[in-house]
UniProtKB/TrEMBL annotation:
Alphabetized InterPro entries for the sequence: DUF7899, SH3_Tf2-1
Protein name: Uncharacterized protein LOC109712099
Short name of any one Pfam family annotated for the protein: DUF7899
Source taxon at top rank: Eukaryota
Limits of the Tf2-1-like SH3-like domain: 7-59
Length: 494
């Protein structure tokens, strides 16, 4: 018997009911290597009954769990909405380019101001990456820059990856002096960065000469593609060990889902189908080969594997949701489902989120609209994993939104008017908290106390809410970090 709840709890930290299924429920069967099918009661008939192993907890029967109905009391003020996470002040401001005159870089473009592309945080350190490839680390306790992450004078950092297993930071870089233009992947302990000992980093995947590398956070894997060798190599990020290779053949794309790799092969236009293969992420074992229908002369808008569900959408056609185990097909009428520019699999909740322009929705795998969001018109029409943040329990989305009813201009990536940072419930679509330029109580934290550990704040809260390009929520510290087009980082805290 198991209970599909991320944590066995009936109330969260704010004494609000958590909408999680406590169970217990009987396991009917194992579904592949990473999921189970549960026997749900008739009251949960609308709930998909396949759950990822990561959200199941073993249930041990105990007579103390039986509660008499006469002892149950209803508290009227409880709801399914989380309590308001009010942000009262902007604590700090960091400038990535504050000491750029003294930098040793041979690449002059690294010294030019550019937008913040990515923010990560771990163990009291904020890591930022600009779109030009400049990386920096800031200490949250001392509120100052520890160091730049570019160790070599011609190093351009492409991406950052935080590895929780050993509390290290992985960087992916290119070097101007390298004529082969091949990337270098390196790792360094967080504590070494804290001490500004960047020479402690060492190179990973030295024998690889790949063209692209994809870090998969859910499965803790790295997928490296080499066009020269026509191979995909998969590595375990836990110990950086090589797992297996996949011959490119006629593979056009590889999708990574929890526990599964989906291999998409070249479409057979004459026969009207796309050959697909599902492999186990852990050992590359072939789990299933199948085909999906494809209309001739119609572009495939997207094809994604989310758990056991394959989503296929072609232009001007209905969305198809195919159960790859049973081949059951559910269609969503084209006029009801907008063609998204981005999709996110909410694997803990067995839902998926769709983005199109400034709009977002959450859908179930039954083909039903699950959540429409209120007061959540995105400021940017271009969505990526860096300018939104979804909490680890996948209950809250934090996004940069418009204030009021300004019209959206697709050609204008960044608006000059300030936006608001909205925290919205993924279940109800309601905004549960907001950092708004219209809020008269929004202020800069008092700078008089503990002056030695405070940063210099130059911009007003309203200016800090302009042109935000990256958002990160530190769930341990309950702080939001934002980066903007000018290379500034702002810390929002209560």
């Amino acid at each position: 018997m198991v209970s599909p709840s991320r944590r066995i709890k009936r109330f969260d930290l704010r004494n609000k009911l958590n909408p999680q299924f406590v169970g217990p429920f009987e396991i009917l069967e194992r579904v592949g290597p990473v999921a189970c099918r549960l026997a749900l009661p008739p009251s949960l008939v609308q709930v998909h009954n396949v759950f990822h192993m990561s959200i199941l907890r073993k249930y041990i029967p105990d007579s103390s769990h039986v509660i008499s109905p006469t002892t149950i009391q209803l508290q009227e003020d409880l709801s399914y909405d989380k309590a308001l996470m009010r942000i009262l002040a902007r604590e700090e401001e960091f400038d990535v380019y504050e000491n750029s005159d003294s930098w040793f870089f041979t690449l002059q473009f690294l010294k030019r101001r550019s937008r913040i592309m990515e923010i990560l945080a771990a163990k009291g350190i904020i890591f930022v990456l600009t779109v030009r490839g400049l990386g920096a680390a800031f200490c949250r306790t001392k509120n100052k820059c520890i160091c730049l992450l570019n160790v070599e004078e011609d190093e351009v950092i492409e991406s950052l990856f935080y590895k929780k297993d050993d509390e290290s930071l992985v960087t992916l870089s290119l070097h101007a002096s390298d004529n082969s233009n091949s990337w270098k992947c390196r790792t360094i302990p967080i504590e070494s960065i804290r001490k500004n000992q960047l020479r402690a980093r060492y190179q990973l995947f030295e024998t690889e000469s790949g063209d692209t590398i994809e870090f998969d956070v859910v499965n803790n894997k790295a997928l490296i593609y080499s066009a020269r060798n026509h191979l995909y190599d998969l590595f375990d990020m836990k110990d950086y060990s090589f797992k297996y290779s996949i011959n490119e053949g006629n593979i056009t794309e590889i999708k990574i889902s929890p526990g599964i790799l989906l291999l998409k092969h070249q479409r057979n236009n004459w026969a009207g189908y796309v050959p697909l293969e599902m492999l186990s992420v852990e050992d590359g074992t072939l789990l299933k080969s199948f085909k999906t229908q494809s209309y001739r002369n119609k572009q495939v808008s997207f094809m994604e594997l989310f758990g056991e569900k394959l989503l296929v959408k072609q232009e001007n056609e209905n969305l198809q949701i195919v159960d790859v185990r049973t081949s059951e097909l559910i269609e969503v009428v084209d006029t009801e489902f907008f063609n998204p520019s981005a999709l996110i699999f909410l694997y803990r909740k067995n839902l998926f989120m769709c983005f199109q322009g400034t709009k977002l929705e959450v859908w179930s795998f039954h083909g039903e609209l699950f959540t429409s969001f209120e007061d959540n018109t995105l400021q940017h029409g271009i969505v990526n994993s860096n300018n939104i943040y979804i909490t680890d329990d996948q209950e809250i989305i934090i996004s940069y939104c418009k204030v009021g009813e300004e019209s959206y201009n697709e050609e204008e990536e960044f608006a000059d008017t300030p936006g608001s940072i909205n925290m919205s419930s993924i279940f109800t679509g309601k905004c549960v908290a907001k950092i708004s330029p219209l809020d008269p109580t929004l202020q800069i934290a008092d700078r008089n106390a503990d002056k030695t550990n405070r940063s210099t704040v130059r911009s007003t809260p309203q200016r800090a809410l302009k042109n935000i390009t990256a958002i990160y929520y530190d769930e341990e510290r309950n702080e939001i970090y934002t980066g903007n087009t000018e290379g500034f980082i702002h810390v929002w805290s209560n």
